[in-house]
Design brief:
This protein has 230 residues and is α/β, with parallel strands linked by helices. The chain contains eight helices and eight strands; from the N terminus they run βαβαβαααβαββαβαβ. It has one domain: NAD(P)-binding Rossmann-like Domain (Rossmann fold), CATH 3.40.50.720. Helix content is 46%, strand content 14%. The protein has a six-stranded parallel sheet, sandwiched between helices. Strands 6-7 form a two-stranded parallel sheet. Helix 5 runs parallel beside helix 6. The longest helix is centred in the middle third of the chain and has 22 residues. The radius of gyration is 17 Å and the shape is globular.
Length: 230
């Protein structure tokens, strides 16, 4: 099995690639726009990856943003004091808005879904396509975040029903953290969100990227998984 992971160099993408290799012995290809390796492609530009898709049996989309700000992921990966001093003010500064939810969370999947569907139909099969969505909209995060995710899900399932060529698999995790890294800001956020989930039913408990990666790999490997599997 050969699996192509968009955003494969990110926090979740790396965990998925590791899980695929370790659990199944699969060939995992990490593709990103900033890659220096042979798998370089921009998910918003199908021309950059169309030919690459033909060599893979399954595709995973881990690309997404929580805020319309390119710097927030770097802030989450830093130490707590830097995050409080510099990170929080910059995250919610409207002047720092440089990307949109619709571009990254919705339109990227729409374009990828169309391309994978075309490949699947040309081979007369449904190619597993995994989309990492979200359980709900976290407190303080603009509604556009979850709206873009739900619209992407809807399009993916609609395309599968009307055109075929893909087996849609949608995961809706809560806040994700790396179980092997207890040194950064995500550790603090994991604790806060975990405590909140104990008292607020609508706040899902945090989950490790490793556990989501395992669910992702198992869903690809089992044809019974289709649609939203949470």
């Amino acid at each position: 099995m050969k699996v192509l992971v968009f955003g494969g160099n990110g926090l979740l993408g790396k965990a998925i690639c590791n899980a695929g290799r370790e659990l199944k012995g699969w060939h995992m290809g990490a593709i990103s726009r900033n890659s220096n390796g042979p798998l370089r492609g921009d998910i918003l530009n199908p021309d950059s990856y169309r030919d690459i898709l033909k060599d893979y049996d399954a595709v995973i989309d881990t690309v997404g943003i929580l805020l319309e700000n390119k710097t927030y992921k770097k802030s989450l990966s830093g130490d707590l004091s830097t995050f409080i001093t510099n990170g929080i003010p910059s995250l919610f500064n409207p002047m720092n808005k440089s990307i949109t939810y619709n571009d990254i969370n919705r339109d990227s999947l729409i374009k990828l879904s169309n391309e994978v569907s075309n490949v699947g139909n040309s081979l007369n099969k449904d190619i597993p396509l995994v989309y990492i969505s979200a359980h709900s909209c976290p407190p303080g995060i603009p509604k556009g975040y979850i709206t873009s995710k739900r619209e992407a899900e809807y399009y993916m399932i609609k395309l599968s029903n009307e055109k075929g060529g893909i087996r849609p698999i949608i995961l809706r995790p809560g806040f994700m953290y790396d179980a092997n890294d207890e040194s950064n800001t995500r550790k603090m956020l994991k604790t806060v969100i975990g405590s909140a989930s104990m008292f607020l039913n609508w706040v899902p408990p945090p989950v490790s990227t490793q556990s989501i990666a395992i669910k992702c790999i198992n869903a690809i490997d089992d044809n019974r998984y289709r649609g939203i599997i949470v």
